[in-house]
Structure formats: C-alpha cells, structure tokens
User: Fold SFRICE_000722 from Spodoptera frugiperda.
Amino acid sequence: MDRHHPLNASFHGSMRSRDSSSTVGSDAREKIKDCFRKFIAFMFTQVGVGALVVCYAILGAAGFMHIEKDSPDVQLHEVRQLRQNCAEALWNITITDNLFNETAWVIKVDEVLKVFQNNITAAIHTGYNGRSAEDIWSFPAALMYSLSVFTMIGYGNIVPKTVWGKIVTIAYACFGIPIYVLYFCNMGKVLAQSFKWLYITAHECSRRDDTLFEDGEMQPVKRKITVPSTACLWVISFYIVTGTIMFGAWEKWNYLDSTYFCVISLCKIGFGDFVPGANIADSAGGSHLKLVINFIYVLLGMGLVAMCYNLMCEDVRVKVRELREDLKNCLDDITLKITVCMNDTKYYHQKNSRNVNGTATISVRSRTMLPVRLRRVVGHEGRSNDALFQPAARAPPLSQHTLVFFGGDVQDYPELMQAHRDNRNYIKWNLENTVRMLGHNFPTKHILAVRPSRYVGGSRIEYKSFSCYDNFVPSNNAGVPEHTPTHSALHHLERLLQGVSSRIKSFSTSELVEAFSPVSLPEDIDIEDLHNSAIHAAAAAEATKSNGTKAQAGSSQSADNVLAEHKPESDPLWWRENFALDETQLTLVGFSKGCVVLNQLIYEFHYTKTLTPGDAHMMRFMERIVDMYWLDGGHAGGKNTWITSRSLLETLTRLNVNVFIHVSPYQVQDEARPWIGREEKAFTSLLKKLGAKVNRYFHEQPGMTHSLHMHFEVLANFKKMQDSIPASMPDTSDEDA
Assistant:
C-alpha cells in the first residue's frame, strides 16, 4: 500500500488530533488534582483548620435553623389546650359549687391544679420551654447548638424535634468531631509555641543574665526554659474572669453563675442550666457582634485549654525528670557514703590491728604511701569537694609548692571504679594511684587531687560516666561546661586549699607520722606497679590477721618488690611548720575533663584583671600560680574545649604563667570531634603569637589504636617527655610528626 495515500494521511491526522485533545484534557485534570491537593493541604494548616471550624459551625447553624424553624409546634398547642382546660375546670367549680363552702372549693381546685402541674412537668421533660420553634431556633441559638455538638459540650437546652433534624445532627457530629479534634491539637500547639516564646522573651528581659566570654565579648548563658504550670493557671484564670464579666453584663447573670458557666463550658461538662443566647437574641442592636464575640470566646477558650495542656505536660515531664535525677543522685550519694565509710572503716581497722605477738602490723596506707582522703572539704559559699592529699617527699630548694590535679571522667576512688561496669577496666588509673604517681614525678611538691562534685550519665551508679566540676564551672548532665566569669572558681580553689590545710593541721603528730611514712620509689616506677603494690599490700594485711607474724613478713617481702622503704634522714613532718597550701606556689594540672577547670580559671583571670583590678587579695593569689598543665583536654560538648578568645589569652600571657600542653591523637585527631584539634591548634598558636611561655608536646605512639589507653598514657608519660626534651628544643607537634 502506498504510504502517501490520502486515506492514510487522513487517518494519521485524526489520530494526532485525538492525542492532542487527550493531552489537553489530561493537563486540565492534573491541574484540577493539583489545586485540590493544595486546598486539602491548606485546610490541614492552623489557619485552614480554624477557618474550617468557623465555617462548619456557621453552615450547621444555618442548616439547623432552616430544618427546625418551620417544624410544627405540637407541644405548644398541647400546653395551650391544657391551660384552657384547667381554666374551664376552675370556672365550672366556681359556678356549680356553693361558694360559702370554702373547704370543698379549695379541695376541688387543688386537684385540678395538681393535674395541670403534672401535665406541664411532663411537657417540660419532653422539651417544652414555652417558646415557639421560630423563637427557639434563632441564629445565635442555632450557632451555639452547632458549637455544642462538634465540641461535645452538649448543653441540651435545645434539641432537634424533627426527623431530619435528628438525622442531620448525627451526620454533623460524625464529621464535626474529627475536625474539632484536629483544631484542638493544632491550635494547642500554635498557642503553646507562641506563649512559650513570649514567656521566654519576658523571662530573659526581666532577669539578670549570667554572662560568658566568647571570642572576647560578653554573651548570655543559654539555659533551657520551660513555662511553669502556675503561668498556665494564671492564663486560664484571667480568661475565666474575662468571660465572667462579659457574660454577667450581657446575660444579666451574677458573677457566680457566669464563672460557673465558663468553667463547665471550658471543661466540656455542659449541664445546660446556663446557656448564653436568650438576652443576646432579645437585644435589638449589636446582637450579631455579641454573638461573634461569644462564639469566639468559647472556641478560643478550647484552644487555650489545649495550650495549657501541652505546656503543663512539658513542665510536668521536666519536673518528673528532675525529680528522678535528684532521687538517683541522692541514692547514689548514699551508696557512695556507705561504700566510702565501709572502706575507711576497713582501712583503719587494718591500720590498728595487732598480730598474735602484740607487735603492730604494717599499715597499708603507710606501706604503700596512699594519700589521705579528706571528705567534704568546705570551699567558697558552702561548696564542698572531696580531696586526696599527699605531702612532698622532700623539701624544695626554695619555698613550698603545691600541685593541684583535676582528673577526667573515668577517675575516681578505686572501690567505686571497681563497682562501675566500664570504669573497672581502668582501675589502675584511680585517683589514689594518680596522686602517688604525681608525687613520684614531683617529689618536692605537695599533691592535692580534687574529686569532682558529682558523677552523672545514667540511672544507676555503674553508669555514672561523666564527671562534673560544678563547684568550679557550671555544667550540664554530661559535664559540658557553661563558662561564666562570675562563678568564683578562684575563690573556691583558695578556700579549698585553706580547708585542706586546716584538716591536716587538726591531725595529731602520731597520726601524721603513721599516715605519711616516707618511702623511696624506683626511678622507673610505672602506674601498673603502683596499682599492684597497693593490691599486694592489702592482701598481705589481710593475711596478717590469720597467719600472724609469718604472714606479716611475707606481705612485707611482696610489697618490697616495688616500694623500698627507708628511714628518713630528717624530720618526716618538716612541711608541717607554717603549713598553708594557699600561700604556696601553685601548679595546676588538668587531665581530660579536668581541663574545663583550667579554662574556667582563664575566664576569671580576665574578669579579675579587667573588671575588678582593685581586688588585691585575689590578684596576689593569682600570682602564686606559676605552672598550668593541659593534659589531652576534651569533653562531650561541641565547642569550648580549648580557649580561643584573644583577649582571654592575652590576660593569661600577662600573668607570666608557664603553659604546658600535652595532646595525643585520641583527642586532637578524633574525626568524630574535629573541633577539638582546631581549637587546640588555635589555642597554642595564639599563645605563641602573644609571646606566652608555652610548651607543646604531642604523644604519638606508633601502632597503638586511638583509645582510652592512649589517652591515659599522656598522664603517665607527660613528665618523662618533658624531662627528656630540653627546653631550648622546639615543641613536638602532630604537624611536625
């Protein structure tokens, strides 16, 4: 067949026209569907739902008014007939009976009136109120009826009488209640968010904010704020008072009845004994305006109830969470006290025990040079911290010197670390071993380790993984600091040193000699050796009780594998005369989380230098700080691990403090926390540019994975690395490596 036949061309042309018309029709249908989808999406927004509820109520009022207004008034005619029959019966009694017999007349009239009364009561129970259908179903009354149906208030003052009215009410309720629930939820969220924003704004404007330094400028400290339940109650109370005044004026109700109506309406009880609408309908002028205000009051009141419900639920959740945390902290504190008291009782019992020959056994603490635990040393304004103290092994060449240590998350008393699910793996790094190691590395310095004020991070004691130095720097429940220059960390440190000095002075000479017996440690002492020596000595002391002097000799021999006891060449309590830690030179060491205390002190250095330069006492105390060590600092927050503000570091430089920075790949090369490396680099480089006396050391151990073991190796080897690298050599860094 010829391809160019006219019939063939005509056929293809008709097909193209059909395709074209089909495409046009398809585009039109898609546009209609798209518009319909947009309309549905808009109707589910807050504005759309509110408009839908209003329109639905107006549409229902118009429909019910149209259906019920022209319904026959059967009850009205029946009541009129009853009234007429009663009047005729009374007239018949009057004209037929002897009027001079009053008693008989009263009896017959009373019977007729009782029948009339019972009939009227029955008519009222079936819905009669003395008004015609046209009077009952006015637009205000119909609007309130529609509102009572889909809000489920159900006043019951007017009800549909016709068959169609009842059918429409069923359908109206089935579709209206879901719309109202959607309105209730959406409007509650919108009003809750709006009111919360207003409350937070007013709260921040009316209170005196704590401030912090961020890049050299003062910034407010951000804390989570929730709307208290009392504020919600005040809002609802004010709304009810407004409705009381409004309905009392318009409906001629007293204030009690008006308050009663507002409460039962907002609570969706709806007894129906008080319903607005009668006097509003009777007023000739302004009835529609009052109707709109009345309708908006009830509808908006439902939204306020939803708002208060959301806000109060949030407040209750926060309060319950805080109460749960407080109870857990209280239980943990009680557990800690019991554990420590049992441990201390066991220690003192071992220290004072005697063998069968009457000679004193070797004290665990004196034998292994364990530091003294000082419970709840009081500092600034009632704050308190536990502390561990060990005096200098030998006299310094010049004046006395104190090293103050702030540990990391994992470090705690050995018995508590042993009870912890995870921390038991690092028990050799407990605070007691750390103090002994620092005492070996710094033999001419008193060693003071400050225990964090609390440990958080879980519901049970074995999950308490985050240390919080709240007495030095405000922190959240993960120990993340919220630095502020007015937290008085410097004052607390000074009072803490004074408190430790007072506690030590209160000991008798015999107690001090027994507690701080001088020992000699090998030059290559290791933290593992310290830990094992404490375990061996404790085991030896237990064996002494059962095996007598023979076991005592064995325990001494096992302990001497690491610690070699020697007799002091001079008075072991040489440091007790004029003992005052707050008047000695200070070296501050922060390890891991403990570096947040050193950062906080930099904030307060700047605050004291710039804003309170007249505080001569605190200025003298700051001058006693000669060395500051940052040992692999880090925490769970997303910033402020290292200080990067130029103005703060300028103040630190002017104090002429020796800054030592020791870092490892575990912190500064952590890909999950890249800000730590960036901030540490900025901290170090800025100090160098400002001319500070800064020394940086990078602890890289080839072949070792980035783990907590690498992290703790910084604590073990920082002094050894410093001693092996001359001061004139350039600082080792990860960039150089």
